[in-house]
Design goal:
By secondary structure, this protein is of the alpha+beta class. It is about 30% helix and about 30% strand. Helix 2 (about 55-70) crosses helix 3 (about 75-90).
């Protein structure tokens, strides 16, 4: 489902190299200690050509993640944006996932990362629905994970660091081995946090809500997009903590994220969610799909078009 098809080029430290030549040494520091930060960005087809969704916001978060981890990146937001656009142009695919990553490079070993050079790479490849077509069409079956979300006192949650995703991987594997599509993670206080790689929203009595940043979530770019939609549609919206049982009694639940888009959650821990066609979720999902494909003029500022 998520197998990568090799593309033409990958950008590495200001050079475009052939896909098969984009290699690092087995003793690369970041490989051993998880000292890397990254982003996930989507490029969509539009009537004007491929367009990258909210590229600037993603790159700003990328550099903020590096700043939190005291990584010195010698590229500006504009330079990284330009590299993404040129990479899409060279690879010649209209829809793709884009992965910028900064990592402590080969040359030093040991826990102290400050003596290691920071390398930066950007790759892109074709990537379909993250949770599969059935999840898109029918909705996601989710389970509450026994693994809690990393506590902000242990690792900085607002940095999209590779090390954080070992926690996500454990939750993902547990859910899939139990026959579910995805996990939902609680925080150390037992409140709902997020999915392994997605934020979560709840609808109850026509009120839309999502956990606040203080619950230990990553402030997702798609989450922010949904919040902006909610404001523009004048929906009743709140950021508030929610309990596990409040998921079970929701009228609607959905995930949001770059990989997953907006995807309804039809079941949690074997409990069917809602009794309707998820009208609020569907309204937001259709608006999101229209926006990323360049069909909603109001949000065209979020698209960076790649000229061929």
């Amino acid at each position: 489902m998520l197998t990568m098809k090799p593309q033409s080029k990958i950008w590495m430290d200001d050079r475009f190299v052939d896909w098969d030549d984009a290699k690092i040494h087995v003793l690369t520091h970041g490989l051993h200690y998880g000292y890397a930060v990254f982003e996930g960005i989507r490029c969509f087809s539009t009537q004007d050509g491929p367009a990258i969704f909210r590229l600037r916001e993603h790159m700003e978060r990328f550099l903020n993640s590096a700043r939190i981890y005291m990584m010195k990146i010698d590229y500006s937001v504009k330079e990284l944006n330009d590299a993404c656009v040129e990479l899409i142009r060279r690879n010649g695919i209209s829809e793709s996932y884009i992965r910028p990553i900064a990592y402590s490079a080969y040359g030093e070993m040991g826990l102290n990362p400050m003596t290691s050079k920071i390398s930066v790479a950007i790759a892109s490849w074709e990537w379909g629905p993250y949770l599969g077509k059935d999840a898109v069409d029918k909705g996601v079956r989710a389970a509450i994970s026994s693994w809690i979300r990393v506590d902000p006192r242990a690792l900085p949650i607002q940095a999209k660091c590779s090390a954080n995703y070992a926690n996500s991987g454990l939750a993902k594997m547990e859910a899939m081995k139990a026959g579910y599509d995805e996990a939902i993670m609680l925080n150390s206080n037992g409140m709902v946090a997020e999915g392994p790689g997605e934020n979560i929203f709840r609808v109850k009595d026509e009120v839309l809500s999502t956990p606040p940043a203080s619950s230990g979530i990553l402030r997702g770019i798609t989450r922010d997009t949904v919040i902006q939609f909610a404001r523009d549609l004048k929906l009743n919206f709140y950021r508030n903590d929610m309990t596990r049982e409040e998921l079970y009694t929701a009228d609607e639940l959905f995930f949001s994220g770059t990989a997953v888009g907006v995807a309804k959650i039809r079941e949690v821990d074997g409990r069917k969610i809602g009794n309707s066609a998820f009208p609020t979720t569907e309204r937001l999902r259709r608006l999101y799909e229209g926006t990323v494909h360049g069909k909603v003029k109001r949000y065209s500022k979020w698209l960076t078009t790649v000229k061929r």
